[in-house]
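dude i think i finally got it to work??
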Amino acid sequence: MNCEFRRWLIHGSRFTTHGSRFFCIFAPVKNIRNFCIIAHIDHGKSTLADRLLETTGAISERDYQNQVLDDMDLERERGITIKSHAIQMNYKHKGEDYVLNLIDTPGHVDFSYEVSRAIAACEGALLVVDATQGIQAQTISNLYLAIDHNLTIIPVLNKIDMEAAMIEEVKDQIVDLLGCEREEILEASAKTGIGIDAILEEIVNKIPAPKGDPEAPLQALIFDSLYNSFRGIIAYFRIFNGSIRKGDHVKFNATGMEYHADEVGILRLKQEPRNEVFTGDVGYIISGIKSSKEVQVGDTITHVDNPCEKEIEGFRPVKPMVFAGIYPTDADDYEELRNSLERLKLNDASLTFEPEASIALGFGFRCGFLGLLHMEIVQERLDREFDMDVINTVPNVSYKVYTNKGEVLDVYNPSGLPEPNYIEHMEEPYITANIITKAEYIGPVIKLCMDKRGTLKNQVYLTTDRIELTAELPLGEIVFDFYDKLKSISKGYASFDYHPIGYQTADLVKLDILLNGEIVDALSALITRNNAYDFGRKFCEKLKEFIPRQQYDVAIQAAIGAKIIARETVKAVRKDVTAKCYGGDITRKRKLLEKQKKGKKRMRQIGNVEVPQKAFLAVLKLDS
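look at this
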């Protein structure tokens, strides 16, 4: 039976109601539009998505709330999108019914992998630019991602109702960036609803329909997944060829696992079951999968009886930029932490982890993140969604170590570094940074890059008062406080984006932190030799603030090998043992003091110094 005719039989006579609106669900492949929204952080993506859902009737007044697609408490509290979210809308244009599949994407550089996954499932993109801020670094980065995937770009100038809007200037920036005509730029205000109808019309008119063959073997791309404690793992997919029915016997190509489709459906505000999902549709599949290792983002779903010839290409494996250890505060929670990380990875494919052990913290996991915000969000989600109380170690990056034997080692943790006499040389990762700022802040921004061992490569005036700087920097230098300092010196106006460019030779040393002569391996760091002294001194001073006072002196030392380069002492809590002496010979007082001294010496030998979580993150606050 013809796929389009089956689509009409299943959906053609069904209607859905939203308030006083009635929409027919049926739409042929030529009337499907798959698109995403890309922009810099805080340029109005989620608000625009809200207006599109309201205008098309995809959400009722009862269900409406701001940032309706941001379903995590964290997203609402911080006002940022962390996860890409897919939802289907129905739209009537010139007497025809259209199905619009929208994927709202994050804007922060740490979640660019979410954007790449959304782009792989679409044919078009709305490029949203804030009329009060203009083109920003992440705008350019996301645009290049979309162009690489041959997406149709629709430029949207948002927030035109604001008093500070620079409509004509920002239009000039968009024309320079895209090479489009000024008339092609849509003016809108997502907050007030201005221009939303024009955006919907452009989506229908400009974005091409899916090109798949409805009669070909099933070929669907998994672009996201989540864990449901009652139904197992739910995989979200986009069908490029063929169709999938409820009860079909399907196979996941990468893992080779076979399942029966217990339920398939489309993604609206809530998951809506369907008997069949067709070419061009974005939907979900539930097969009772319990193990997170059986579902991989970027995998291809096909039929067991009639498989597709090749897998869908376009997904690159994620490369973590920042590494840190995550350990349970209670050693008995190790397996529970493993399960929590596996379930979190289903919903966050850019997270990587592997088991490791620490002398100070016991058994835990070495995790790879795309940035410091990503690390912070993962820790927060572990706490909120899985009730896991964890300790994060000092974040660092991956280094390449060349040994005298000709071996090349990837070192993610300072404790994995070979002895100095076995090391020939080391290399550290470098990135190309794109910084867009106002001309008045160019001096302090260049100085900041130089202080971080950066090399200025290029500077281009985008307008008379906006400059784009390109610089090469060591990744280890931007991990800690670079972005915060950049925002501070530019009064919040500078935007920052980066991508890795490879490794370069560096003079690095292992800096150990000792408490009462014992190395705390979780606080060790790899750092350039020139910065080691200042870093060690400041680290000791910072730790002195967080280490609680004991009944004996606690020595905090920074060392390179056997050489101590900095020291601070947390003074003991002293009890006045001579208080009961109301006179008499001095030998009585001296005897009591000597007795106390021996007790404290014995206590130091058997006592343990607990390092609070704040101390592990203190390094992030160093004004290095």
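Residues 400-506 form a domain with the Alpha-Beta Plaits fold (CATH 3.30.70.240).
im so relieved honestly
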